[in-house]
Amino acid sequence: MIEHLKSPSVCVVDDEQEDYRPILNALNSLQVGCVHLTGAVADLPASPFSRLRLIFLDLHLNNTTGKDAASYTANAFTRIVSPRTAPIVVVIWSKYSGDIVDRDIPEDDQETEADLFKRTLFEAEAGYQDRLVFVEMAKPKPADRPDEWTKELAKQIAETLKEQSAIDALWTWEASVQEGCNEVCSELTAVAKAAIEEGNLGLAAGLKGALQALAEAQGEGDLTKQNAPSHLTAALSQLLADQLEHPESTDGLAAHGEWLCQAPDPEPRPEFSAHMNGILVVADLAVTEMRYTPGTVYRVTNHEQFEAHFGCTVASLFAACSEYKETQEDRWREWTEAVKPVLIELSPVCDVAQGKRVSSLLLAGLLVPTESNIIRKGMKKADVIIRTPVFRMRWPVDGSDVLDALLLFNHRFRTTLPEDSNPGWFEPWFRLRELPTSAIRNANAASAARVGYVSL
Q: Residues near 341 by Cβ (< 8 Å), separated by ≥ 6?
């Protein structure tokens, strides 16, 4: 149970008590909880902290200096901070951070202790690049410290962090999520109180009953030890979403309204939208044992089996989605070599969650790279075709690690498969998020519901 509370958001790394005790007291006076580490090997966590947001770092640990200090501290940093976490504000808090490491080399090549540490850290773990925000905070030598240094440190911490408006906005939002979780827990506790009073139960038993009732209600009769956790997650997520959409107070982010409504300076690069859509529109595959999860995009690996199940060839899918004809040999060849046939699962989420789906519903389409003008212009526009926005592909395509693309689906190309079938002619690739999936599902339903008749 205590494992869920292990990862801190603030950490102080310093091995000298006369230094770390005042900053711990200063953070305590600001009511900021933190974890203190000396940097000694025995003191380091078993795995890097995954929810760290702010770290105060002394550069000289274990009585080392220069390159030895940079190497030792960088190694400790990689043991403390997960490279998958971002953004992290690293406050370099060292008495000698501005000292030159080697004055015998040309002045243009000289590094400070802080610069040497950063270079050593990035060489040790490239994953930290563009994930860390470095700021420096003065650490005077003991003889130069004021009498009430703890109070001065508290002011200095606030002053050092005040210019990080974008990070402050993210931290404010994160705090609102935590507050939303608190509200959900409080409401569940209040509901559990009824069970406590009626059955003379303790709080733990009452909460257990409340969570069991939530899972049962969400499952609507389909409740097993395998799917109960996902049913509970779905119910709690709905409660949390309501708290985030209708918070009791918006004072936190309101302070950032002025700069948020201004145009970005400088303007984002052209590829920014695709990169952002790579987060907003698509995601990694869901971690589940379910074979056909709604929103999953599958790569077609066997064209003959595609024809056997759809009753038409992959070439006919290419043709139905393209402005080019086979007679336009060069453009047709470029189009068919660039696009990739895919499927998407569109079963209603409620049927899947309640275990009432009889067969999966698969719609065929294409993954279309957008870098080539010829490929972009070759996409057909028609009522039976729906496209996603352009997004950055984070999953390799023919060995390419970076590719901007969109998904194009043709409503006429659909089939169903038994839910327990295990076909070998397509494989899961990535996942379209729920709202974009719903847009395709709704458009597909509307296309299937089109009516045309003659009356006299």
A: 299, 300, 303, 306, 314, 317, 318, 364, 365, 366
Amino acid at 223: L
Give whole-number Cα distances, 6 to 87, 175, 180, in Å.
19, 18, 21
In the 8-state DSSP scheme, what is residue 276? H
Beta bridge mates, 296? 431
Cα separation, 125 vs 112, in Å, equals: 20
């065929």: which residue's tokens?
364
pLDDT digits (tens, 9 = 90+) for 359-396: 999 999 999 999 888 898 999 999 999 999 999 998 88
- The residue written with tokens 């700069």 in the block is 259
Distance from C-alpha of 405 to C-alpha of 391, rounded to nearest angstrom? 6
pTM for this model (two decimals): 0.79
Q: Using one digit for the tens of pLDDT, what is the confidence trace for 133-160?
A: 999 998 888 888 887 888 888 998 988 8
Domains of the chain (ranges, CATH numbers): 6-163 (3.40.50.2300), 169-260 (no CATH), 272-448 (no CATH)
| DSSP string across 236-250 | HHHHHHHHHHS-S--
DSSP element (H, E) containing 404: strand 403-418
309 closest CA partner among 411, 409, 420, 423: 423
Q: Find out whether 107 and 124 touch, Cβ atoms under 8 Å.
A: no
- Say which residues have a Cβ less than 8 Å from residue 101's Cβ, sequence separation at least 6: 66, 67, 110, 111, 112, 113, 116
**What residues contact residue 373 under an 8 Å CB cut-off, 6+ apart?**
none
